[in-house]
Amino acid sequence: MTGLLEGHLVVGAMLFVLGAIGFLTRRNLILMMLSVELMLHGVSINLTAFGRHHGHHSGQVFTIFVLTIAACEAGLALALILGMYQRRKSLDVQLWSNLGEPDLPRLVPEPTPPPAEEPVELPHLAPAGRVPRLPPRRSVGQA
Fold it and tell me: What is its subcellular localisation (predicted)?
């Protein structure tokens, strides 16, 4: 690898890691969305660097697709965040962790019944040099 490619890959990986850390540690929805955008830009840099290294324009084409999807995602996410802010007057993710309907009773899982038949005994591996214990053989007439 050339020094130029390694530099681009390191920058792209650092952007992706910083975005992932930001997404996992932040509680504000806008900062989480910006962290996802940072991750997408890190991927775009890596795609462009690999495309240039191999002499193809496919990395740049994929980067255009990634940036187009990122722009659509940003517009949609901002619209959703605006609606959520108008509803709760906060952008804290912890407030949205209990999204259940208050009118419905809490769902209690039913206990599972015990198994109807005995478990099948599987053969065990014998130590080296010893004959394994085998279950007794049944004749054809026995069920």
Answer: Cell membrane; Membrane
Contact predicate 47/102, CB 8 Å: no
* Size (the chain), residues: 143
- Tally of domains within the chain: 1
Q: pLDDT by residue (tens digit) across 60-109? A: 888 899 889 889 989 998 898 888 888 878 888 777 766 666 777 777 88
Q: What tokens does 14 get?
A: 């650092």
CA-CA distance, 141 to 103, in Å (whole number)? 62
Q: Are 92 and 28 in contact (CB under 8 A)?
A: yes
Residue 74 in domain: yes
Token code pair at residue 61: 């084409």
